[in-house]
Amino acid sequence: MTGPVVTAVVSGHTQGIGAAVAAELMTRGIAVLGLARGTAPELAARFGPLLREHQADLADSAALAAWLATPALRDFVGASPQVLLINNAGTVEPVGALHDQDPLAVAQAVALNVAAPMMLAAAVATAARQADCRILHVSSGAARNAYTGWSVYGATKAALDHHARAVALDYPLEPQARDAGAGVRICSLAPGVIDTAMQARIRATPESRFPQRERFIAFQRDGALGSPEQCAAGIVDYMLAAGFGHAVVDDLRAAGSR
């Protein structure tokens, strides 16, 4: 691919944090390949050739693998010296205790929340072998603290945290590569509580399935939800910083205070 020096792959770029991150990247002149079930016509109209899209159900691992076997990702990355991957797509479902969980919904959640990010990470790292490759998993506080009704969501996010820890061991940050050059850097980053459609679904979940529901209603009522745009600016700043990858599991709110 010719054009912008930095390229980025964003999963779930059509709404919420993903849409805001894609817009923030393109505002900075970074070309984006968006992966989602739908498309983002508003982003396409606003940013034109900076946005490339591929429609895919990321919970369909076989279909994702088939697409990753094509030259599409490699062609997009091209000779870019810096390649970003933001694994944002995910689902909070199924919510509830084990006896309320549909086994198929569990499988789909694991495919979307765990398999797809890991597959994309491997594919992007391969396509960007000569680049400064930076991978960010959008994690959650639920990865680090257990919540009633969120056994699947928390476990899948915890899997991303541990994936980042292990990947970082495969690509140690040598002193001469801490600030520039080729290699893989990774972080699983919790963004905080953001005002997205996922938050609306959480607030609509019956309290019998999610006893913490009132707490999330209070977040909205008390104005404690961050905006996707503010979150996106923080995420992109974080990814482009010289020190990205030093903290392998991190929280955006804590990083902002350092």
Automatic annotation (TrEMBL):
Pfam families documented for this protein: adh_short
Main location group: cytoplasm
InterPro entries to which the protein is assigned, alphabetical: Biopterin_syn/organic_redct, NAD(P)-bd_dom_sf, SDR_fam
Subcellular location: Cytoplasm
Gene3D superfamilies: NAD(P)-binding Rossmann-like Domain (3.40.50.720)
GO biological process, one term: tetrahydrobiopterin biosynthetic process
Keywords on record: Cytoplasm, NADP, Oxidoreductase
Example of a GO cellular component annotation carried by this entry: cytoplasm
Molecular function terms, GO-annotated: sepiapterin reductase (NADP+) activity
NCBIfam families given in the database record: PRK07023.1
Protein name listed in UniProt: Short-chain dehydrogenase
